[in-house]
Amino acid sequence: MSLKVAIQMDPVEALDPDVDTTVMMALSAQARGHRLWWYPTSSLALEDGRLTARARTLEVRPVKGDHFTHGAPQTMDLSEMDVVLMRQDPPFDMAYITATHMLEHIHPTTLVVNDPAEVRNAPEKLFVTHFPGLQPPTLVSRDPGAIADFRRRHPDMILKPLYGNGGSGVARLKPDDPNMEALLEMHFALGPEPVICQAFLPDVKNGDKRVLLVDGEPVGAINRVPLAGQVRSNLHVGGTAEQVELTARDREICALIGRELKRRGLIFVGIDVIGDYCTEINVTSPTGAQQLKRFGGVDATDLMWDAVDARRKG
After folding, report:
1. Are residues 91 and 169 in contact, defined by beta-carbon separation less than 8 angstroms?
2. Across-strand partners of 225?
3. Could you say which of 20, 250, 272, 299 is catalytic?
4. Which residues contact 314 (CB under 8 A, 6 or more apart)?
């Protein structure tokens, strides 16, 4: 069954066909005969309950430097789509949240992946706090006294913004580091949100594992190893992807969260695992599918379309 699919994303020109999961999702859709459009979040328009976007037809190719062809923008009623993929990158700010509210006007008649209300209700660094025992010691607060007390108990710690992405703003504070007050001043100057404090996990030197789940089931993982002396393992800041197998603990973590992911309509999810701990549950625009397939794993995007097709037929 051919579906009409619109992808809500950042500019298609900026995508890298060698690494971006969104490109792989589009290629998998094309292989099934689905028709594609794309539009930027900024083009959404809601009037009298009707949600439109300035969308372009889209064809993608796995060719660096020549990875897409698109048509002229035209105003399209998104309720006429079969599927909308939310694939714009965070930050998870009010613009992101507003887009989820707007997309609720068409979901689930038009299937939005992931469910927009549940994306809004599952901030990636907060959602994991609903599963006791999965996180390392963690504090979410803006209170300097609470943060100072946490550091007394966990003198080697990570400080990061609550709604950041891609490792931006992440810093390690060793026991003798005098810069905590200055770092907090910088974070608090950016906005009113709390920060995340976490006990530093020495296992990060062995990598930060990205586990992909489709409809609540783990389908594979890659390991992202930071540069020597660094704590951030994100690929776009210098981390290196490696092949890795799911461990018994990985599967235990997935079993603990998988049923809830499926219940919430969070079809395509990536979790971050360091050692025995889950540090984040990524529901906005998870990546890692290209690297997983390159290392001989499954095509997670093809499994995603299986889940989408099953819902549309149902």
Report:
1. no
2. 240
3. 272
4. none
272 is catalytic: yes
Q: What confidence tens digit (pLDDT) does each residue in 215-246 have?
A: 999 999 999 987 765 555 555 555 788 999 99
Catalytic residue status for 125: yes
Tell me if residue 232 is catalytic: yes
282 as an active site residue: the answer is yes
Catalytic residue, chosen from 87, 120, 151, 160, is 160
d(CA 235, CA 224): 7
Give the whole-number percent of the chain exceeding pLDDT 70: 96
Cα separation values, 27 from 21, 163, 299, Å: 10, 30, 11
- Known catalytic residue: 206? no
**Which entry of 125, 151, 209, 264 is annotated as an active-site residue?**
125
Tell me if residue 64 is catalytic: no
**For residue 273, what are the CA distances in angstroms to 56, 102, 239, 313?**
37, 32, 15, 34
- How far is it, in rounded angstroms, from Cα 22 to Cα 274? 25
